[in-house]
Structure formats: structure tokens, C-alpha cells
């Protein structure tokens, strides 16, 4: 790996400059021009690196970039996305979200980690390997622009329609992080995700709040409807919600209890007095990795500026985010949510699906997981933590489930990366370590797959 | 009144132009420059009309304008305010909120009714009376700039400190409306008002929603805390809240049942399927005028833009608006709210008072009410509706309670005025009728007060 490492070191400024260039493009959902610009930028960089590229455009959504580099009997699919989360709340950022800024050994900007940093680390690893002796396998890039908006349907259709183009032995998934103690987290699967919006409506327009004694207030409807979904102990109370959730096998339970989780570090870092229901130890890790969730991601009604306004809102809405586990389906969940609301007298509260991802997981003993863990161990000098399933989500099932290939994820994030939050950042050392890790992983995976099973 | 009416007709364009000029000043809470400009504009107009004016300035709030016009043994205090509600949500306005616009016989802009239109109608009535034979009484104007922010404390202090300056026989209060059938509403009192903000806090910053299984979500805390305040039947369920609410006397109950309320017109106008708890008839009017209320005026947490964002909010807040009746005090209410939240396990939910007004009412048989009703009857040709207490609020107790004087309110609003909402407007005919009504009221009130009681 000495040649690769030397190349990375010699090109550090170029790599960082490219990452900053990509991060300057405000490719948030709804900004079609920026999304297209980010896709075009990525295709251009990959083409310049010698990859065979193709840009797939859609009349009603951002492009998908596909690229193929190297050759050989083993093929690795690399999945990343170029869209980023909206930067709001802007007043909590210490720097401009789309003007990358280096301070204290970190790069701050929206997308630094999720997911432009991880995408670029992989592109840079491929470039370094090609320059220092050649790519040990064929790498196929699949880079899309709707991950953050949770709109997995287009990607799912694309994968079904381009199975041959995307055919691979295994997939390196989006991203991962180090934990608070600097241990790389390698993940083998993701929870499913369903985003919905609940809306309650009242009068035709906002009214003066002095009408409150006689005019129904949709904010109260929404509050009562929401309160019926989760009990005061933070357990989902939607009728039938967890019917498919199976208990962990003794082996899974044992594995979960071996996964280190730095509770004190996590609490201190996020300023938490404690965890939900006072969870701790193995129970905490089990819930974190395996429990279905129902989160309020947004609440809005009436006047929310400074001071007060005596308004009775015409409408109130909540954005909810459900995470779920295999055997649960978003279709059944949506039907249950509707039935639950109807049964509790909230037939007037509208439910709208905003996007969904199916859950998926690869066995922790798969060769791709072992190659990833070994590469992470080698480049970080730390024993990686392997999550059989990660608590977050993405179109993993839509891609690897459809293609029928195993997958694994590791990445450049740190426990204070602030993904989806103000002041998103990466540690610059992690960025270059991530490039080395990616290169080591590709060599190991190519070697493992070339070796006959059991050989 | 012929001279007054001729003057009003001859000066209609001038009157409307002045009203538009005042409405162009965006005097919302927080815009200190605009608030000061509105106060200065009003003082200038009153001075030009020959009134003795005084502008009281404060280092930390908008000015108070006092003015005195005319003379004689009877003095009428006229209370209005020049601050207006924030215009949000802007996307619901069909015209610019601070660019007055006439269409279909109506003037549209923020403040058209509440309260710049009513203030100007009164200024114009005084001008017309003075020009057409002389003011029949002494008029004292008290015009302030913090009514909409519910900050009654400064005004209360000002009134206590300037009782002699403000001394009067009675007070004409802020504003009122016609009902959906065109009947003028004359009001004799107001409910009290207490605005509070509830805030729940979670992690130090917004986090990724995939942490929902283990990280407490303040939006859920807020929802559960709110749900404990009002039951599903829209009744306030805060412990001890209604202890002071007395049942209506048989006479009050009888009076309430005689008050007409156009339920069908109100429902149709506001697009309502029905009223709270299916209220109708006398029960509806009684609740409307006498019931304490707890309204959610605003809800905010996390991401509220288009699409979804997988964020676990760091904080969630609700703006609440309580209306209350005599014998209830905002101090006791705040203490009860705190105790209730503590007792239900919500000690971590913060409560902040945003402003308050005490309730106040004048007997419906008072001379000032009779003069107002007669003037309204005379100028509209319709039988006015007299509310013993109005469901809305304002610093009536802070002014008239402190000065120990009776008060009444009538005004230029229509049932679709959209006060505190997008597309606020007045009917232009109502504006000029309002000027005539004000002039008629002043003549009648001066005559009634000059006549010895029982004479």
C-alpha cells in the first residue's frame, strides 16, 4: 500500500479542493439546477479519471450517475448520493453551510460527511489505486440525488431496469462513522424508513384566537392525534404496529451485548440527561439497532416568530419518521396508521406518505463484511465495531435487495459530524484515512473473492 | 348631522388617502423604526387638526401618543393602537400587506381594520364635527403601540402615572365589527388574556432522527404536555383552572339567549363543518362570550419546509393563548399551569409568559353603552347587537379599570375583515358609516352626560 499512501499524501490538496468544489453546490431537494450541476460535476470528475460514465436524466427528478472503472473478475458496486439535507436552521451554523471552511483540523459544510465526503473519498481511493499499480477489481459507481428526500421509488425502478449495468459481487454502501472513542463502525444493514406528514385542518383561513371557545383548532386536533401514536414512555401505541417485530435470537442477543456503546461519551456530546426510558447497557444497544421508531421531525402551526400572535391556525401539520425492521412493510404501516387514527376519532387528520425505504441486511460473516472490518482495523489501528444492522436508513434494499448482492458500509464520519444538523463536518485526518481504508478494502475484497470459497 | 355628513362626503378621498398613508407604515412588533414613525405620523395629523398633543417616548418600547381636542363639561377618552399584527403567512395574501389596495368596495391591507382604520375613523369624525359646528365634548386620544404584542404592563404603568391627563367620563374602546347579517356589534367588556410559550428541550443540537429509539425527542414531550392541557372534547383540563368561573345569573343567561348569532353564516364564511362540541344556540353564544379558552396559536419543532427531513429536533415550542373571565388572574393561572405540568411529569417543559391583559366590563345599561347603541342604530339603520362582554381582549382593564370609568366599543369592521389573518380588509362604506357613527355617538353621549341623571 506504500504507493497508494504516497499518492494520497502527494495529492492531499487536490483531493480536498475537489471535495470543497462539490460541497459548494447547494444540491438540496427542490433545487433542480444545483442537483443537476452536482451530478454533472461528478460525471466529469469520474470521466476525467478514466471511468466509463453515463448520466441518466429524468423529467421529474435529479439525474443518476453511473460509472465503471478498472476490470477483473470481481466487481464492487459503490453507492453514494450527491443530494444533501436542507441546511436549516441557518442561525445555528457558525459558518456558511455551502462555503466549505477548515478549522481545528475539520472541514465544515453541508455534505462534508453525508454524503459528498464519502463519495469523494471513494473516488479518490480509486484514483490513487489506479495511479499506484492499478485497480484490483472493477468498480461500478451508482450515485443518485434523492436519498435525503427519502424518495426511493425512482431508484428502485432504475435498479430493476438496469440490473445488468449494475451487476456486481457486492456493494460498498453509502457511509459510516467512528464512535466517540475513535472505533470505526462497520454496518451490515439498515432499518427501513417511512416518512409521512399528518395534517389537520380547521377554518378556511387563520382566524383571531378569540374564537377559540367555539371554532375547532386544528393544532389541538393534531396534538391529540399525535399523542395517541406514542405513549408517555416513548413506546409506539399505534394499534398492531409491532405485530411483525420478532424477538432477537439468543445468538443475536449475545452479539448485541458484545457491541460497545460509549453511553457517557454519547450523552456528554449531545448534552443528554439520559436515554429514552432510562435505557442502558445491552438494552440500549438492542433498542438502538433493532427497535422500530416513530419520531416527530417537524411540527408546524400558526405563528412561530418572536413574541405572540393571537391567531387560531387554519391548519397544523407534523412530519413523522418511522424506522422499521424486516417483515414490516411501509404499505401495512400506512394502512395501520390510517386505521388507528380513524378508530380514535381522527378520520379528519390527513396522512400523506413522503417517502420510504425497505429494510435490508447482510450476514456479519459475509466476505464483504470481513474485508471491510479488516481494512478498517488495518488503517485505523482500532478494533472496528460491527453493527448487524444500523439504526439509520437508505435505499439499501432498493439497490442490493433488488440485485441480490451483499453489502457493507464504512466511512469517514466522526461522532460529531452533525449530519442533518447545523455545522456538519469531517475530521480531515479521517478523510485521508478513509481513502486509505477504501483502497485497502478493495484489495482485500478482490483477493477474498478471487480465492475459491474454503480455499 | 347634515353638516357633518356633507363634510365627510366632501373629504372622502382625503380621509381614505390618510388611512392608506398610515397603513403603509409596517408597524409590527419588533420594528422599532416603523412603530416610531407611525406614532409620529399620528401625532402630526392630530396636531394639524388643532389638538394639543404629547408624544411619550420609552427607551425600550414604542411611544404613546396623547392628544386632546375640543372642550366642555363632558370628556370622552378614545383608545386605539397603531401597532399591527405580523402579516405572516405572506403566501396567503392576495395583495401586499403594507401596500393598501382597493378592490370590490374594500380596502385591503394589514391594519385596515385592526386598528388603524378604527383610529382614523375617529380622528376623521372629530375633524368633521369640529368643521361642522364644533365638537360637543372634550376628546382625549390615547394611542399606543403594544396592543398586538399583548404587553399591557407599560400601558398599565403609564395610565397609573398619568391618571389626571387621561381623566374622562367614559371611554370609547378600540374597535368592533358588524356581524354576517350587517348588524353592528356593540361591546361592553373584554375577556382577559394571557399569552405563554411552552418549550421542551432535548439534545444540545438537532440530531439525525435515526437516534429516535434512544434519544428523547422534545417534540414528543411537548405533544404529551399539551395533550394534558385540553381534553379531546376541547375542555381545559388544567388542574383547578376554572375554580373562579361562576355560573351566569338567570338574568345574564336570559340576556345571552337573546343575542343573535348567525351560526350558518359564520360556518359558511369560515368553512367550518361545525362548532366545538357541536355547540349551538344559546349554549354557543354563552361559551363564545363567557368561556375561558386555551388556544394553540403556534407550534414549532424541527423541519417544516417542503418534503421530509430526518431530523430529531433539539427543541419544540408552542405559543398558547388563554382567554379568561373576571375573578381569574394571570398570576394564579401561570402558577396553576406550572403546578399542573409538574404534577403530570412535565417539570422539564418551560413556561414563559409573553403578555397579559386583565378582563373588564361595563354594565349594558350604562349611558355610554346606550349612546353607542343609539348611534349605531341611527347610522346603520339596523338594531345593534350588544355583547355584555366580547370574546376578544385588550388593555381595557389596564386603562378603564385603572381610571374607574365605563367604556364601550363599536367600529368599522365586517365579518370578513380577517383581522390577524391574511387579506385584512374593511368595506369602504363601513368606513364612512363608522365616521358618522362616531360623530353621532359623541353628540349623544355629550347630551346624555350633560343632562342630570334621571332628568
Brief write-up:
Chain A has 455 residues and is an alpha+beta fold.
Structurally, how many domains make up the residues of chain A? 2
Main sheet overview of chain A: 6 strands, mixed
Helix content of chain A: 25-40%
Approximately what portion of the residues of chain A adopt beta-strand conformation? 15-25%
Distance between the termini of chain A: 24 Å
Q: What Rg of chain A, in angstroms, do the CA atoms define?
A: 23 Å
CATH superfamily of the largest domain in chain A: Zn peptidases
* Assembly classification: homodimer
- Count the beta strands of chain A: 19
How would you describe the overall organization of this protein?
Two copies of one chain form a homodimer. The model of chain A has no long low-confidence stretch (mean pLDDT 95). The first copy, chain A, has helices spanning 2-10, 12-23, 32-48, 116-131, 152-161, 163-166, 218-227, 250-258, 263-270, 281-290, 330-343, 367-380, 396-403, 428-450, and strands at 52-58, 61-69, 75-81, 101-103, 106-108, 138-144, 170-173, 185-187, 189-190, 192-201, 207-208, 293-302, 311-312, 315-324, 350-357, 360-361, 385-387, 407-409, 425-427. In chain A, β4 and β5 form a beta hairpin. The first copy, chain A, folds into two domains: 2-191 and 359-450, Zn peptidases (Aminopeptidase); 192-245 and 292-357, Alpha-Beta Plaits (2-Layer Sandwich). In chain A, α1 (2-10) crosses α4. Chain A has 455 residues and is an alpha+beta fold. At the A-B interface, β10, β11, α7, α10 and β12 of A face β10, β11, α7, α10 and β12 of B. β12 of chain A pairs antiparallel with β12 (293-302) of chain B, so a sheet runs across the interface.
Amino acid at each position: 500500500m506504500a504507493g497508494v499512501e504516497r499518492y494520497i499524501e502527494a495529492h492531499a490538496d487536490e483531493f480536498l479542493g475537489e471535495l470543497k468544489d462539490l460541497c459548494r453546490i447547494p444540491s438540496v431537494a427542490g433545487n433542480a439546477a444545483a442537483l443537476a450541476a452536482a451530478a454533472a460535476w461528478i460525471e466529469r470528475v469520474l470521466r476525467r479519471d478514466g471511468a466509463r460514465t453515463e448520466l441518466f436524466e429524468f423529467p421529474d427528478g435529479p439525474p443518476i450517475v453511473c460509472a465503471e472503472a478498472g476490470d477483473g473478475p470481481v466487481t464492487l458496486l459503490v453507492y453514494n448520493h450527491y443530494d444533501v439535507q436542507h441546511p436549516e436552521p441557518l442561525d445555528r451554523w457558525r459558518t456558511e453551510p455551502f462555503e466549505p471552511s477548515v478549522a481545528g483540523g475539520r472541514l465544515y459544510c453541508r455534505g462534508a460527511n453525508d454524503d459528498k465526503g464519502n463519495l469523494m473519498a471513494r473516488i479518490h481511493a480509486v484514483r490513487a489505486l489506479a495511479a499506484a499499480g492499478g485497480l484490483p477489481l472493477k468498480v461500478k459507481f451508482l450515485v443518485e440525488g434523492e436519498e435525503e428526500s427519502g424518495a426511493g421509488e425512482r431508484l428502485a425502478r432504475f435498479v430493476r431496469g438496469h440490473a445488468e449495468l449494475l451487476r456486481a459481487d457486492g456493494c460498498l454502501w453509502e457511509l459510516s462513522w467512528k464512535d466517540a472513542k475513535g472505533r470505526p463502525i462497520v454496518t451490515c444493514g439498515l432499518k427501513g424508513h417511512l416518512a409521512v406528514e399528518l395534517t389537520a385542518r380547521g377554518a378556511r383561513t387563520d382566524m383571531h384566537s378569540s374564537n377559540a371557545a367555539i371554532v375547532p383548532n386544528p393544532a389541538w386536533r393534531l396534538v391529540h392525534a399525535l399523542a395517541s401514536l406514542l405513549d408517555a414512555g416513548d413506546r409506539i401505541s399505534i394499534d398492531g404496529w409491532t405485530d411483525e417485530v420478532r424477538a432477537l435470537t439468543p445468538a443475536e442477543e449475545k452479539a448485541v451485548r458484545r457491541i460497545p456503546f460509549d453511553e457517557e461519551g454519547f450523552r456528554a456530546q449531545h448534552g443528554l440527561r439520559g436515554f429514552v426510558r432510562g435505557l442502558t447497557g445491552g438494552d440500549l444497544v438492542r433498542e438502538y439497532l433493532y427497535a422500530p421508531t416513530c419520531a416527530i421531525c417537524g411540527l408546524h402551526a400558526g405563528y412561530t416568530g418572536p413574541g405572540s400572535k393571537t391567531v387560531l391556525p387554519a391548519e397544523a401539520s407534523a412530519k413523522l419518521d418511522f424506522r422499521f425492521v424486516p417483515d414490516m412493510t411501509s404499505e401495512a404501516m400506512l394502512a395501520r396508521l390510517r386505521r388507528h387514527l380513524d378508530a380514535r376519532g381522527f378520520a379528519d387528520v390527513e396522512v400523506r406518505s413522503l417517502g420510504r425505504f425497505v429494510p435490508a441486511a447482510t450476514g456479519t460473516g459475509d466476505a464483504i463484511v470481513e474485508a471491510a472490518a479488516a481494512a478498517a482495523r488495518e488503517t485505523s489501528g482500532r478494533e472496528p465495531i460491527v453493527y448487524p444492522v444500523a439504526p439509520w436508513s437508505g435505499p439499501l434494499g432498493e439497490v442490493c435487495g433488488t440485485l441480490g448482492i451483499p453489502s457493507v458500509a464504512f466511512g469517514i464520519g466522526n461522532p460529531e459530524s452533525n449530519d442533518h444538523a447545523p455545522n456538519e463536518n469531517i475530521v480531515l485526518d479521517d478523510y485521508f484515512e478513509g481513502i486509505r481504508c477504501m483502497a485497502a478494502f478493495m484489495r482485500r475484497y478482490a483477493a477474498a473473492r478471487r480465492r475459491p470459497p474454503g480455499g
